[in-house]
Amino acid sequence: MDSRALNTVWWSIRSLSGAPGDCLGELVPQFSEWEAQQGGITADSAPHNTTATSADAAPTTHCSRVGTAVQALCQGPLLAENKREASTDAGLKRGSAALVTKPATAPAVALETEDAEGVGSKASTTLWTQLDAIRQAWRRGDAAELSRISAVDRGLLEQLAWSGVPGAQRALAWKVLLDYCPPQPSRLLRSVSRKRDQYWQAVAELGLVTDPRLGNRLSSEDWARKRQIDLDVPRTAPEFPLFHTGAVQQAMTRILHLWSVRHPAAGYVQGLNDILVPLLYVFYADQAPEFSQLDRTTLPEDAEPLLREVEADTYWCLSTLLEALQDQYVFGQPGIQRRVALLERIMQRIDASLCAHLAKEQVTFMQFAFRWMNCLLVREFPLPITLRLWDAYLSERGTFAAFHVYVCAALLERFSLDLVRLTFPDLVLFLQNLPTRSWTEQDLSTLLSRAYMFKAIFEDARRL
């Protein structure tokens, strides 16, 4: 189990009082009873030590089965690393409701401690410095310098990205995590140049220009897709004038249309335009920081060649991102159906009273969670928080779609006390306009910590 997971789960459990088995029971109502039915731990089968942990022994539990991450935590090295915290924890009252309602967050620099499985602050600094050196050499087109830089440690990048990527390195980090840029800097110029050329060749072949001959190149189905894209793109990110400049909207239109044509089983589905926003903004802000202000209403001619490169990069990264989500965009959108159903089952275990209240008010999960799944919460958070969320998503490689469900569960749990007080019309309005506009990265870190905890508990459950 990597240090990212261990640190996240440690801080989630440490936010609660009591032994790990008791903590899980407090965190998830009815958890112990449910686990008993599954053959897992119960309060009786997981006796705990009520005395302070000795200096030379890590606390253990007699867990027969719990989520993989939690079991590793109970038996793993991280508790030994944090045994210095035991004397402080011993003074906390076990079972305190106050401690359960506001969990501590996985610290933003959790992986920068000297003990976290060898991933110290030196490794973190070295990686970000390496990415910055690659970025600068790439910008200069210096092949000789790139050949002298060592390959990026993909595993280390994933671990560090979980805690957030510095803004200056985010674009390159995302491109590496999305397999657009090779980890070997010596291959970077040739690989990216080839992919950019392929993109623009495909755009030209499809005829995505204002041209009377366009009608001869597009089928009736393609025209229907293009009309829907032409309707949706102007509605994208209405609060940011940058996304309403002509050049940016044309770039978005070409990206979405080419993707829909190359993926006929999925085609274009409303919501893909929202998923495009974080990628396009991060890459454009990196290429043209002086022209990337979100309130900018026009782009100078100097920015157009840079936007051309950004457009190609965004297309390829979007394609990789959507590979894990294609079942959400095929006919009937079965992927969304499954993930919303999973979210409802998880919430039945986490907060049965909230589920009962939603049912009483006749609010179905599909009414609000469809958009959460379809747009990956892009509409629910301010853009800087969305970028931080996507750092964590991309560090999950091909499993971020599953982790996203647990993030949605943590989001519902966060506002549970507000939701149970509302009736139908106010419930719907609240869920469609969550009060997250003033959120900070600390708020998001708390949410991610809870989400990882839920994943640790439920991911390996045989019956949910």
Automatic annotation (TrEMBL):
Residue ranges spanning the membrane: these are none
Which residue numbers delimit the Rab-GAP TBC domain?
164-397
Example GO molecular function? GTPase activator activity
Gene source species: Cyanidioschyzon merolae (strain NIES-3377 / 10D) (Unicellular red alga)
Q: What is this protein called?
A: Probable GTPase activating protein
PROSITE patterns named in the record? TBC_RABGAP (PS50086)
